[in-house]
Amino acid sequence: MDARLPKEVEDARTAIFVKGTHTGEVLNVVMRDLMALKRPNAISFSKKNPIHPFDSNTTSISSLEFWAGKNDASLFLVGQTTKKRPNGLTFVRMYDGQVLDMMEVGVDNFAGMDSFKTPKSTPGHKPLMHFASELFDTHPRYIQLKSMLMDFFNGEVVDSICLPGLEHVISVTCAPTPASLNNAPVNMYPNQHPSAPEDVSSLPKIHIRTYTTRLLSSGTRIPRVELTPMGPNLDLSLRRHKAADPELLKQAMKRPKVKKVDIESGLGKKKKNLEVDEMGDLRGRVHVGKQDLNKLQTRKMKGLKGGDLDAEDEESDEEQEDETPRKKRRKQA
C-alpha cells in the first residue's frame, strides 16, 4: 500500500501500443513512429486484439485494466480502422488500475520519419512541447488533448537540463479558430450524457510536427537555434471522447504534502532550522543569546598584546597588586 501512495516525483509513464482487429498500413507506420518517440518507456503488442474501448461491453475495459496491472503501464494507444471511422487512434489514460479518461482522434494526413532524410533524436530524451493556439487553454476538448499529449510524451521529471540535451521539439498547432469557439467555456471534463454525442465537425484539426534542433554560433552566449524536420507529421481530427469521473480525477490530482528535499534527506516532515544544501549535506542553524563583549578576557592572548593594550594591561596588573595585600591584612586582623 505504501508503494501505491502518490509521489512528489512520479516515475516515467509507460505506454502500451495495441493493434485492433483491423489497422492498415497507415496506422501501422503511425504507431511505429510514435513508439520511436516514446522509447524506452514503450511496449508493443504485436498480435491483433479485439479491443474496442468505447463500446458498452466491459470486456475491452477489463482487458485494458489487466494489461495495465501486468505491465505496470498507465497509458495506452489503441489503433483501429473501420469503414465508419478510418485510421483511428485512441489515447487511454489509467489511474490506480482503472480507466481515467479516453480520447479518439482520426489520422487525416501523415508523413513518417522515413520520408525525412535528416538526423533523428536519441531515444529517451525529453522533447520540448510547444502548443500554439488559444484553444488549448479555453476549449475543454483541446485542454484534454493537451494534457493527454503531455502525459504521453513526458519522461522522467528533472530539475534542470543542459541546452544540448533538448534534441527535438514537438509542435502542436490548430487550424484557424472559428468565431463560434472564441468564447468557449473553461471546463476540462464537462458532465455530458453518454447518449448525447458532441458535434465535432466544426472543430479545427490538430497539426503535430516534430523537429530536431541545431545549436549554431551567434556571437553571444545564447546560441542560434535552427529546427530541422524530423517526422512524424500528423494531421488529426477529434472524434469520440470519455471524460474522467470527478471523484477519480480528484484522487488522481492529489499530491503529497512531503517535499522532495525532505524525502531525499530522510527528514520526513520539515524541521525548523534544518536544511539540505546543493551538495546534499544537512546543515543546521543555532541561535545563541546576546553576548557582552566588554566582559571578555583578552589580556592572556598573545595576538592582542602590543601598543596601548600592553599599557592598559600593566595598569590593571598594578591595581591588582595594590589590592591583594589589603585583602591579606584584613584576613590576618
From TrEMBL:
GO biological process terms on file: maturation of LSU-rRNA from tricistronic rRNA transcript (SSU-rRNA, 5.8S rRNA, LSU-rRNA); ribosomal large subunit assembly
Subcellular location: Nucleus, Nucleolus
Alphabetized UniProt keyword annotations: Nucleus
A Pfam family the protein falls into: Brix
Region (Disordered): 293-333
InterPro entries: Brix (IPR007109), Rpf2 (IPR039770)
UniProt key word Nucleus: yes
GO cellular component: nucleolus
Biased composition (Acidic residues): 309-322
Transmembrane segments: none
Residues in Brix domain copies: 13-247
GO molecular function, one term: rRNA binding
Family: Belongs to the RPF2 family.
Name the UniProt record assigns to this protein: Ribosome production factor 2 homolog
Organism per entry: Sphagnurus paluster
Lineage: Eukaryota, Fungi, Dikarya, Basidiomycota, Agaricomycotina
